[in-house]
Amino acid sequence: MDTKFLKTLLLFIGSCLWVSCTDEEQSNDNPQETISNEIYYANMLGKDIMSELYYWNEEITGDLNQWDIETNGDPIGTVDRIRYHEGDKYIDKWTMMTDDMNSFTSSVGGVSTTFGWNLTVYLISETSNECIGVVNYVSAGSPAEKAGLKRGDVLWSINGKSITTDNYLDLYYASSLTASLAYIDWENGSIGDSGKEVELTAVTMYENPILCDTVYEFNGKKVGYLAYTNFDLTSIPKLIEIGKKFKSEGIKELVLDLRYNGGGYVITENVLASMFAPKANVDAKDIFEKEKYNAYLTEAYRLQGISTETPFMTEYDYDEIDLHVSTKDANIGLERIYGLISPNTASASEALLSGLMPYMDVRLIGEASHGKYCTGLMMSGEDAYENCPKEIKNWGVYVMVSIYQNAAGETPCMPDGLQPDTPVQDDQIPLYQLGDVNEPLLRAALTQAGKQYDRPNARSRSMSPAFQHIDVPQKPVFGKRILLPSVNMPVIN
What we know:
This protein is of the alpha+beta class. Helix content is 25%, strand content 29%. Strands 5, 6, 7, 8, 9, 10 and 27 form a 7-stranded antiparallel sheet that branches. A 6-stranded mixed sheet has the order 12-13-14-20-21-24, sandwiched between helices. Strands 3, 16, 17, 22 and 23 form a 5-stranded antiparallel sheet that branches. The two termini are 22 Å apart.
């Protein structure tokens, strides 16, 4: 690897120095005729990044040595194949290469073409491939919300046909569809068409990840509630407003609903931590998190005097993403957090809860989380090379560069996810709306906070024993904890 490339990598991660790309200085001569210039340079990009930045670069040395950039015709598939694995089991489920970095970055930021619903899909029979879709939530202003859909609605058919394992992906990727709703009669064991239909046309939109924020008052105390689905950058100012509102209300305990939050940007995670952690720790700039890099980067940062620890902070000034905010007046003064989690809780969500554990009482309610314990960097061809070949300006790799730890040197979600202190299933029918005090996960949290209910839980049924859950497409941000180049690292002169 030439020293210019290595220096560029350090500059990229450590100093937010985004290098420019000049085409005319790069030769387009390809020593082999078997692949195009684009694929040749994509091979070069992927191999360089995986060789130097990748956390498990030593573990995949054999695969890297076999990666012939002059003849390999599938760089995307190669990155996918050589990600760290033990036999057929992939330890790294997240590193990926793309030939459309612009679209990838946009989708991670919360903008996508969508109906605006989040669904769980179930196979309803062991003898057929028929399915139903259950609405977990809908995004504000989305086609699904405008059609009147809400949490708990059950989808029975699309375009006049039963939902099956052959067509259920239309719920995610079709440009338009007509869906009919189902009824479920648990007493008689029947399910069928309710006769109600909705028509939907997908739109390209930003989905606001703040689903609900409210304050409950009981027994002379106030408890806050925040349901949040994506650590994006756009929502940061609104999150700070909510923190100030909770502070003005004098709440000391917060129910943080991350059951549908698959991750996002580390900066947003840090902003929330500065509002949720005890003020004394924030004022003292105690360590919130640490990043553990591979041997090469660890030594390089040591020589450069670059810290791999992230303290609590209150001022966030990042010109490159036009973010200039302060949480100085938004620290809520919390004493306890009730984290609502599920298998859809991943990455930055897990890291936030883990980072707060050494400093305050964090109680987990729900089901085991996903178990994404490493941090990724989104690096395009333009970011990697001063003289970037024009063919790969929009190519890039989302590469795992570190394992995060809290101030105690622990990664509680590694390897099998955060484990709930109070197990509660999120698939109970009827599905109460998020924020409803009778919603099972929220009810469990409020009960622990001291709220007394006049009646026991209303009778409900879990979907899982009756119906088999099947895998569905996740949002592009799912399982991603994204490091921006300048986070907690001084400028390299």
